[in-house]
């Protein structure tokens, strides 16, 4: 059952987490998915780690609008903030504990037996 439920849950988290769609392109009625997605925080932390402090980027394309000037420009065009690295790491731990606790509660609720009324 978990495999059948995993894909419909994980695909929206990946799409709205920044892998396939820029944060500015997310429709307002789906923005809440971004905030519960661990992909969002992990992706932002990865992008910041990779691009923060990178100097000028050489561009060999004819259209300069498709080029990035430096690492800060890459981070900004992906709608991320360089100062969010600690926040992202902290929220990844909070989501890790929170989702595990939620899973524990759901499993615990499945183990309780319903009381059967005795017929006298």
TrEMBL record:
The keyword Transmembrane helix applies. It is a multi-pass membrane protein. Keywords: Membrane, Transmembrane, Transmembrane helix. The chain crosses the membrane at residues 5-23, 89-108. It is found in: Membrane. Its main location: membrane. GO terms for molecular function: ABC-type transporter activity. It holds the Pfam family ABC2_membrane. One of its GO terms (cellular component) is membrane. Residues 1-51 form the ABC-2 type transporter transmembrane domain. This is ABC-2 type transporter. It comes from Halocaridina rubra. The lineage of its organism: Eukaryota, Metazoa, Ecdysozoa, Arthropoda, Crustacea. The gene is wht-7_5.
